[in-house]
Amino acid sequence: MSMSAKPRLWTRGFVLDTLVNFLIYIIYYMLMVIIASEAIHSLHATVSEAGLAAGIFVLGTLVARLFAGRSVELYGRKKMLYAGILFFLVTTCMYFLIDSLAIMYIVRFLSGVGYGIASTATSTIVSAMIPAERRGEGINYYALSMSLAAAIGPFIGMVMQQMFPFRVIILFSIVMVLICLGAAFVMKVDEIQLTEEHRAALKQLSLSNFLEPRVMGISIVGFFVAVCYSSVLSFLATYAAELQLMTAGTLFFVVYALSITLARPVAGVMFDRKGEDFVMYPTYACLAIGLLLLSITTQNWEMLAAGVFVGLGYGTFMSNGQAICVKLVEEVRIGVAVSTYFVMLDLGLGVGPYLLGAFKEPLGFQGIYSAVGLGAIGCAVLYWLLYARRRKTADLQEDSVESLESEAE
Question: pLDDT tens for residues 339-348?
Answer without folding.
Answer: 899 889 888 8
